[in-house]
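Question:
Now give any protein.
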Amino acid sequence: MKTLRLVLGDQLCRTISALRDIDHTRDIVFMAEVHNETTYVRHHKQKLVLVLSAMRHFAESLRAEGIRMDYVQFDDNDNSGSFTGELGRALSRHHVDRIVVTQPGEWRVWKMMQTWGGVLDTPVEFREDDRFLCSQTEFADWAKRSKSLRMEYFYRHMRRKTGWLMIGDKPQGGSWNYDAENRKKLPRNFPIPPGRRFVPDVTTGDVMTLVRQRFADHFGELESFGWAVTREDALEALHHFVTNLLPQFGDYQDAMQAGKDFLFHAVLSPYINIGLLIPREVCEAALVAYQQGSAPLSAVEGFVRQIMGWREFVRGVYWMKMPDYAQTNFLNAKRPLPDFYWTGETDMKCLREVIEATRRHAYAHHIQRLMITGNFALLTGVAPAQVEEWYLSVYADAFEWVELPNTHGMALHADGGVLGSKPYAASGAYIDRMSDYCAGCTYDPKIKFGIKACPFNYLYWYFLIVNEARLKPNPRMALPYRLLARMAAEQRQQITKQAEQFLDRLESRYL
């Protein structure tokens, strides 16, 4: 049986299920760079270069293996700009008996694929994406058995399943997680080993030229591009992290420092999400470091939890709850996204630092996303769809299956508590504690009211006031609402007045 095997841009893995039983003598692997995928949101220029260059390198590696390739580049003549159109053209070039494809990561692509059997008049075989540690079926079964849909319980299930960091049925070291040890502020002048970056090769240079020409108006810079675009380089980045950064990753994984864009973070998520690295091998590399005594338990557990816990959990929630999940808006947030999310032009130093770093690298670590840009959007009531489009656009690792639950549920609490048990709202004190952003800022995190007050301070209490009916019944919000109840009426009025004045001018260029 002659087969056309489709590989998507986030499936750049030789062991992907669509390629597993390939017949080198008969089958054809089909890949296409299409307009619809590069523009359904205005992707960061570096994200476009990463994916398109990695696709071209992956195709070349398959050719070197003797596999017959049909590869459509973005600027090829007659490129229709869509997967469906390009599959139709490929079928006219090749007389095949069927199409084989691994299930996509995003709902919109899966919905499109459901039409192919009829539209293309060719049988389509969909295969499970088994790069993940937990299948959709297993997650759904776990969710049915569980009293509560919480990541912590899922994570424990996965620890027991894999045996990772376990002694029998008990967690290594006696605790399931070591978050309490992983919240240290980075000391001044603390030495940080450089992250592993890569010089663009000829193929990547060609893609950079394409992106400059075709996507000049997209967000982001290209000058600092240093992402791995091959499996070999991604493996080198993994080795560099485990050897040089993992030992102190746990201590400072929540820390933020101006001008230090990567700190001790792995920065491997783009490679995992497009298939250059496999989740299992990434976790196992960290586990080996622990077994050899070169990385502490708190660091390794925190790192493994991000992949085996959060990454797998949000994927399970996404596929279990879509498509209705994306439409929920528990807090009735409707305000438009401030323009400075794109320009970085704001007097709030923490926001400026994170947005400018995002422009430089298409990257910010999880606390910067959750507690700076996400926290501000939560406190100011920005419409979830607009925040989600921004995150999906600006980060190299952003694909909807992982971006949407993290933004919609974790950052914005728009799902009403499906993903997280409470809103992750915080005042300026948290930012001051975990970063050096407040030094030299126009605003002071220690001032509660007035022209010099950090906006996060009064916005935090205003957020509690306007959402009291929705949030006060939540047991995990009991403490802040007890504090709010003790607040004098005059102080509440002062908070409300200043917050509403701030929100009225939120569309201004500077804040």
